[in-house]
Write a structure and sequence with these properties.
With 344 residues, this protein is an all-alpha fold. The chain contains 16 helices and no strands. Helix 2 runs parallel beside helix 12, helix 13 packs antiparallel against helix 14 and helix 13 runs parallel beside helix 16.
């Protein structure tokens, strides 16, 4: 999920994200942190439930949503525009301050998740459509929900925001060739057309939202609290459309797709954390790395899969949309508990 979780807690944690996170925040920050905690926990609890409900609706009444398929790229554009509205130049300053850490996060994200997608697709013997879908999820940029769970995990929010932002900006250059390289053995991949689609549905809306925020920041600040809910509802509609398009196949392949998604996400979280530890970035940054690697822009993956492959290929992204928020919140709670014990 992208754009859905950030604005709900962005203002409360903005001051914290300007410097590396610590395991023991000062007492003066406790009121703001408490407010941010509540907003972030609400986001990672309500959003997966909403997406799950949308998936059930698409599965139970597919005829209601199948005609909406052509609107999916435009719906994704709405989500990305909302993401751009939540961004400020401060999101890019972390790249200048810690280029090594951000570069490591980007390399880990675009190596580990695509590689895992290919291994899982082959290891489970997935059909060409599902295999391409799993790989495409792995080749997508990281999701902004990773920023939320990084905060809950007492991780390095500044690093998380920087990696998520830059991975999105680089997506038109990285996602299509990676998909061609790894998924081309399963299905034909039109990388050039995919570049165009990502530019139109991701980069341009994000830049547009950022420009609007810069020009009319004080007005946008008044509606920041509405943006995550608008994004969440839009993501829910995308999931409903994707599920409706392959409702029959879901009933026979749901278990296998869920296994692929759980493995993909779980191994991504573990290897992302291991990459941070191996690079000696410190505990908070390693927690951020876990979520920046293991959580994906599944909305983009679903849109691209539906447009370039088939509704069935978009199924792994739809399942990922729900699962990575559930697993992320659980892992974040566990990491936060360990951090508190270490600090105590």
């Amino acid at each position: 999920m992208r754009g859905g979780g950030r604005a709900a807690f962005d203002h409360a944690v903005r001051s914290e994200s300007k410097s590396p996170a610590t395991d023991s925040p000062s007492s003066s920050a406790e009121p703001a942190a408490g407010s941010a905690d509540r907003a972030a926990r609400r986001a990672v609890t309500v959003f997966p439930l909403l997406v799950l409900a949308a998936g059930v609706a698409g599965l139970s009444t597919p005829g209601t949503f199948t005609g909406w398929a052509p609107s999916v790229p435009y719906l994704l554009g709405v989500i990305m525009f909302c993401m751009g509205l939540t961004m400020t130049p401060a999101d890019f300053t972390g790249v200048v301050k810690r280029p090594w850490a951000v570069a490591l996060g980007l390399v880990a994200h675009y190596v580990i998740m695509p590689g895992l997608g290919w291994l899982i697709a082959n290891g489970l013997g997935l059909s060409p459509q599902l295999a391409a879908g799993v790989i495409l999820v792995g080749c997508a940029p990281s999701g902004t929900a990773s920023n939320v769970v990084t905060y809950l995990a007492r991780g390095d929010v500044a690093l998380s925001v920087s990696v998520a932002t830059v991975s999105t900006v680089l997506a038109p250059l990285v996602t299509p060739p990676l998909t061609l390289l790894l998924a081309g053995e399963f299905l034909p991949v039109d990388a050039q057309s995919m570049v165009t689609d990502i530019l139109k549905t991701v980069l341009l809306p994000v830049v547009g939202g950022l420009v609007v925020r810069l020009v009319a920041g004080r007005y946008i600040a008044r509606v920041l609290g509405v943006l995550p809910w608008l994004s969440a509802v839009t993501i829910g509609v995308i999931v409903a459309v994707v599920v409706a398009g392959s409702a029959d196949a879901i009933r026979s392949a749901a278990g296998l797709v869920l296994l692929a998604v759980v493995l993909h996400n779980g191994l991504g979280l573990a290897l992302g954390y291991a990459a941070g530890k191996a690079a000696r970035l410190g505990a908070p940054a390693s927690r951020a790395m876990a979520f920046e690697v293991g959580m994906q822009n599944s909305g983009l993956a679903a849109s691209l899969a539906a447009a370039h492959f088939s509704p069935l290929a978009a199924l792994p992204a739809a399942v990922f949309s729900v699962w990575h928020n559930v697993s992320g919140s659980v892992v974040a709670a566990w990491m936060a508990r360990r951090a508190r014990r270490s600090a105590g």
